[in-house]
Protein 1
Amino acid sequence: MGDDLGFDPTFDFRTDAGGGDPDSTSPTLRAYHKLLWSKPLPSGDLFELDDSKPLPHLHHQSARGEFDLTSDSAMQTWNTWDRMRRITDGIERSEREEFLTIAHQIGGKVMFPGREIDGEPTINQERGRNEHILDRFDLTLECIRLHYLGETSPLADTLNRYGNFFSLFEDFHGYTNFFLLQDLASEDSSTVKFLMPFAHFTTSPFPRTVEEYQYYRENGISFVQSRNRRMAEYIVRL
């Protein structure tokens, strides 16, 4: 199946996004998501995704529920955020572009439910604007870990609204294994591997210096590239 699609984990989804947001407009990205995540859940039930709806949605409907999933970034560079300009302007242009390119590969992408519930923000929307998260996926993943433990976090209300989605994966270990996120969690899935030192949501998610950004950048590149390899190995086994 992977060979038929020509799966390339280093494909930059900006190249077929028509100048738009790749998460919303790249047909290759949606095809890769469909290929990767149409598979059995921890329960053994098949989580089949179909692309009958317009971009960017992938749809699932079964006895386990109905879900419309959309893509989001698992590797934020903040390269276009005005609030980070004083930091990112201190990074060599070639290094910024390298980070952007890797962030737009499949290892830097994740899926969440894309429909609002009761007019409240989606997970994608809330994690981008929440001052404790600011689009950091490692911090989002920590919130998801705490959700499975029944503990509070900056995203607790939002994640609880989508509790039926997270229940598909049974626990944090099931969630990280399903979405091939083992490179951002400990072997027993008891902790998250943070891309920067973590102080339980008490400090800004942003790097404070160019040096901190470089530390974050290097860890982020390592995560995406490791996940790319994990995904490629998974596709070979299909």
Protein 2
Amino acid sequence: MRVTRLLGLAALALATTACTPGAAAPSSVPARELEVYAAASLRAVLARVKTAYEAANPGTRLTISTDSSTALETKIEQGAPADVFLSADITNPGKLAVAGLAAGEVVPFAGNLLTVIVPADNPAGITTPADLAKPGVKVIAAAEGVPIQRYTAQLARNLAAMPGYPADFAARYDANVVSREDNAGAIVAKVALGEGDAGVVYVTDARASDTVAAIEIPAQANVPAVYGGIAVKASRQPEAARAFLDWLAGPDGQAILAPFGFRPPTP
């Protein structure tokens, strides 16, 4: 009889605890993991984005992989399991959208500008972008087809049309290229090591490095870079992917991007 009474009291205590306001209950909300493929120039800022977004969205975890935008676009096209693609241009995500591989339209979320970088001690004595066309200057450039290469090619054409620059500036610049790298981060690394006299990268890449010096490009010749993102259609959770993308393009995301030197996503 005593045992029966004790068992009854134990059952009552368990029932009371379960009904007590504020009592912990097992969570029924599954964890959400988003695989984010992003341009290499976003590596540093996305570490901060990851912390802020996960804090604002409990249960969501971001896994971030960075590479050149062109390489990532190809991987997604071939079936890589990405949920979100953040590119240093709108061309690469646009290709995926046209191919029916995006859940919705391309969302512009950041802007950037170009700058010339040189090693911290600047042994070649480069002082203006015009020096990139001088004989003997070793330029580290980007591989054909990646966003920073396309932006730089347009920059060279813009500079060729400016007073004080030779009309064949673009050809002279190309003749000085000694190495072509997969992304802007690799250009920074080689210039910092003194393997080249100069290179053209994003302002944000130069700003993030204390081993190179930046030389400003005339505003009228600079090429605004517009970064665009998509939620990948093959994602197992496209709504969560789109929510992250909208957050990044919104006020919270912009507040994190701005201190790193990114601009609003306007051409």
Protein 3
Amino acid sequence: MSKTYKGKYTVKHRSKYKGNPEEVVYRSHWEKSVMQWLDNNSEVEKWNSEDFIIPYYYDVDKKWHKYHMDFWIKFKSGNVLLVEVKPKKQTQPPKSKNPRTKKSLNEAFTYIKNRNKWEAAEQIAKDNGYKFAIWTEDELTKMKILNKTPGNLKKLKPLKPYRKPKKKS
């Protein structure tokens, strides 16, 4: 089981943060990297994290829920961008060999929930003249927010077994 990487982010340019700069929390290393990028980007006028809330209808339980958008970003150009940070794998339909396992069902429900959230986010963005984007490891690497992702790392050749040098006679 993997541990989550989360913590409090210390906003450097407090006047750029829309909301309480004392309560900024990241839930992944990628989110923390995006926060650093937003904080230091001279083209970003204002930003916030998880303060922009979008209602969405979840097709599985047939109920309305609240979606806390990862990032709301206003650029100096006046453009506003809503951003979700997700691993690429979670943006694609699950590929399960046995769809009846608990893991497969959870993956399917998560995918449906994400699609419902993103459809609602796209509509809110459209209605308000904003843009909506999902930033995966691919986008984060292209934007130089992430240096390298595990998929981009060159695989090392296995080392030869260690052998003690023969003693000279």
